[in-house]
From TrEMBL:
Source species: Limosilactobacillus pontis
Entry-linked InterPro entries: Alpha/beta_knot_MTases, Ribosomal_eL30-like_sf, rRNA_MeTrfase_TrmH, SpoU_MeTrfase, SpoU_subst-bd, tRNA_m1G_MTases_N
Similarity field: Belongs to the class IV-like SAM-binding methyltransferase superfamily. RNA methyltransferase TrmH family.
Family matches, as CDD domains: SpoU-like_RlmB
Lineage: Bacteria, Bacillati, Bacillota, Bacilli, Lactobacillales
Lineage top rank: taxon: Bacteria
Full protein name: 23S rRNA (Guanosine(2251)-2'-O)-methyltransferase RlmB
Amino acid sequence: MKTENTDFIIGRHPAIMALKSDQEINKVFIQSGLKADAIAQIIKLAKQKHLVISNVPKNKLDMMTDHQNHQGVALAVAAYQYATIDDLFDNAAKHDEDPFFLILDELEDPHNLGSIIRTADAAGVHGIIIPRRRAVGLTSVVAKTSTGAIEHVPVARVTNLVQTAKELQSRGVWLFGTDMQGKDYRTWDAHGAVALVIGNEGKGISALLKKTCDEMLTIPMIGHVQSLNASVAASLLIYQGFNSRHPLE
């Protein structure tokens, strides 16, 4: 995967043109309080594409765009090229291993995504699948948080996660989701071709994708806080997969 030259598209007219095109866009940043017609059009186009829209103060936009004339709008675009599903399978074959994939369902925090990519690289995950809409993509923040792992873990961006999940199943991959009512993750045997599904930070896995999973896993908790940060939960599950695939002799 190679870096592109630009992380942001700035300015009202360039933003409108990009939103009307097939340009890969990760997130839309709008300066708080602006009411111009062009801003309203940008918001409308972004909503039609189901993109994440963040209202931010002017000083944050100034910093993000290196104090260029952003006119109150910036579109975060892919900092890295995306892989295909076939690329992920090829990566597993290159290592002469059964596929071990991650499916991330509408993750929104770039720091979570970057951390997950870092863990995935450490544990030998062969690829990550993210949705095109309602989720963070491969931004410069993700790249920085991954501390270089983004160069080694292919990430595929797909239009429909449920259809992709079914395609994986048709190719022999067993899907494991995360849920409060699943089996204890410490019993998970990740031998064979597997994909681990991690849900959104707040909503978890979407209902249709959950129904598609072959089995659900849960992380037992005995403390007062009955939830974990998405990247922390993913790390525990990824390393259980690693442990079962590479047991101590």
